[in-house]
Amino acid sequence: MMEGSVWVAPGDHPNNTNSNNNSNNNNLWVFSHESEHDLALMVSDFVENNGGSAGGDSWCSSDSESGFSDLIHLADKISSYRHSVGQYENDLLSVVHSLILSISEMDLHFVKSGPCNASCIRYSLVKLFRLSGYDAAVCASRWQGSGKVPGGDHEYIDVVNYNNGSSERLIIDIDFRSHFEIARAVDSYDRILNSLPVVYMGSLTRLEQLLQLMVEAARSSLKQNSMPFPPWRSLSYLQAKWNSPYQRQFIPDEHDIMGNVSSDHEQCNGQLRRLQSLLQSELEVERLLKPINIDSNRRLKLDRRRHSSFWAI
Fold first, then answer.
1. What percent of the residues of the chain are helix, what percent strand, and what percent coil, each to the nearest 5?
2. Tens of pLDDT along 111-145?
3. What is the mean pLDDT of residues 10-36?
4. Residue 92 Cα distances to 124, 166, 203, angstroms
5. Facing residues of 292 across strands?
6. For 63, which DSSP code?
7. Tens digits of per-residue pLDDT, 241-270?
8. CB-based contacts of 4: which residues, under 8 Å, 6+ apart?
9. Residues 6+ apart with CB under 8 A from 9
10. Is residue 186 within 8 Å of residue 224, measured between CB atoms?
11. CA 303 centroid distance within chain
């Protein structure tokens, strides 16, 4: 095992791992080498067996009346889950946004060479977190296929919050919306998708709630277009990304940071620019809506006072 990393099983605290656990978990990396091949085969088989169930003429981007009602109900729940967070999470989210916006393209060239699917951004963000005193790490999870759930791997960030002798992992996913993109989505599904945070930061419990809602929304959208529900959009597959055993890494492998070549990072540079642009747009919308929300809360409190005064007469 490389320096600056530790294997963790789901539910375990990083400090509680031992050598036996590390030995067992290393096998997951061996099994997962076939994960992309397994997923590709599953997609091919799914398209071959189900692709003809919804012809091009059956596709529509507009919602049916019942489907629209279902998706609006889910949108309200998502909004509620997004804003029902404690002060610590709100403060940490502000830190996440500030650090992401502070990353420059030059920072990415000293993290990882070759195609890395935004690992450069994650390691740069973790470096800034740790310099700021947070226990943050890049978490690389991998899992075996089981039944209709294909094997796979995922990379995200966690920050461990220590408070009064206990600890809590908070998850950070810098490309959260991409997990829920579906083909031929109806209009209201696209609006729900765009209502999700650009960067997810929060507990596993709240993440689980959002996953369940987005699976329901995807199922509703696909159903309206008479399209089958693929196994890689299932709740079990989504849960595996964040709930599987993971390797907690503070720095990338040494062989990954040898010979940094700018051209290798063009993809990551583009991803960083896109991430920062989306995040800035989201923050600007929230800034513009904040006075409206405050005014609405004031009116609600005033109405409640008037209601109480009426009954007191």
1. 60, 15, 25
2. 655 567 888 899 999 999 999 999 999 999 999 98
3. 44
4. 17, 18, 12
5. none
6. P
7. 999 999 999 888 765 555 555 555 678 888
8. 249, 250, 251
9. 17, 21, 25, 245
10. yes
11. 38
Rounded Cα distance, 228 and 211, in Å: 19
Contact 172, 206 (CB under 8 A): no
Rg of the chain's alpha carbons, rounded to an integer? 22
| C-alpha distance from residue 276 to each of 17, 140, 283 (Å) | 36, 23, 10
Q: How far apart are CA 213 and CA 77, in angstroms?
A: 8
Block residue for tokens 């085969």: 41
Distance CA 169, CA 111 (A): 24
> What torsion do the CA atoms of 68, 176, 166, 24 make, to the nearest 10 degrees?
120
CB 60 within 8 A of CB 227: no
Task: Please tell me the distance from the alpha carbon of residue 125 to that of residue 257, in angstroms, as a whole number.
Answer: 16
Query: In degrees rounded to 5, what are phi and psi of residue 174?
Result: -85, -5
Which residues share a beta bridge with 169?
160
Per-residue tokens: 64:
């049916």
> What strands, in cross-sheet order, belong to the sheet with 5-8?
5-8, 246-249, 135-143, 152-163, 166-173, 200-202
The position carrying tokens 């091949």 is 37
pLDDT score for 166: 92
Burial class (CB in 10 A: 0-12, 13-18, 19+), 168: middle
Which residue type sits at 242?
Answer: W
